[in-house]
Design brief:
The chain is of the alpha/beta class and 222 residues long. It has helices at residues 18-27, 50-58, 77-83, 99-108, 154-168, 185-190, 200-203, 208-219, and strands at 5-8, 33-38, 65-70, 88-91, 112-117, 135-139, 173-177, 195-198. The longest helix has 15 residues, at 154-168. The model has no long low-confidence stretch (mean pLDDT 98).
Length: 222
């Protein structure tokens, strides 16, 4: 049976007690920690950096941490995040002049390699990058903030990426980020996603266990 992964996005967590809140989401069934880094330049918001990542590692968060870099320029930060404990680093093609080189930099830093697509980013960049990628991330919203609504047209784009993965590199995992709720997770799974980044739907809920288990039962019944 296909495996699905829920990745709580800590952008919506309680930063005054981050370690505890992240651990709570993992104990409730979260599989991967999604760590959103924003620079108020590539995206209109400013969030967290490598020191916070290291603090989570020191707090003994053992789940894999996927660092989603929404920063421009991006290259200089890659070795720093790798050293601070990133397991996977995802970048956006618009944040580097040399995508191939940046993907190699991530791989050489010992992390899994993710490439992210905004709602309007062309998929043509996949033509010459798929052999270097472990994860393709498709944004369901324009990056910058949690709590936005999923853009329905992204279901078509998701199906298109799924076709490319199945045809050429079936080991690549397909991750969707932004606007995932209990009400649309089945449609997103049916369109081909493997990893579901969920921010506000988990952290604004009173019962993390209940929301994550409800999402998983929807996933395993499609
Ligand atoms: C958006 C971030 C997302 C965000 C998801 O730019 O990359 O990871 O936190 O949050 P929700 O699930 O609330 O859309
Ligand atoms: Zn993200």
């Amino acid at each position: 049976m296909k495996k699905f992964f829920i990745a709580p996005s800590i952008l919506s967590a309680d930063f005054s007690r981050l370690g505890e809140d992240v651990q709570k989401a993992l104990s409730a069934g979260g599989d991967i920690v999604h760590f959103d880094v924003m620079d108020n330049h590539y995206v209109p918001n400013l969030t967290i950096g490598p020191m916070v990542l290291k603090s989570l590692k020191d707090y003994k968060i053992t789940a894999p941490i996927d660092v989603h870099l929404m920063v421009k320029p991006v290259d200089n930060l890659i070795p720093i995040f790798a050293k601070s404990g990133a397991d996977c680093i995802t970048i956006h093609p618009e944040t580097t002049d040399h995508v191939d080189k940046t993907l190699t930099l991530i791989k050489n830093s010992g992390c899994k390699v993710g490439l992210g697509f905004n709602p309007s980013t062309s998929l043509s960049i996949l033509d010459y990058t798929m052999d270097k990628i472990d994860i393709i991330l498709l944004m369901g919203v324009n990056p910058g903030f949690s709590g936005q609504s999923f853009i329905p047209k992204m279901l078509d784009k998701l199906r298109e990426i799924r076709i490319r993965i199945d045809k050429f590199f079936p080991n690549i995992l397909l991750e969707v980020d932004g606007g995932i709720k209990l009400s649309n997770i089945s449609d997103i799974a049916s369109a081909g996603a493997d990893i579901f980044v969920v921010g506000s739907a988990i952290f604004s809920s009173k019962n993390y266990f209940k929301i994550i288990q409800n999402m998983k039962s929807k996933l395993y019944s499609i």
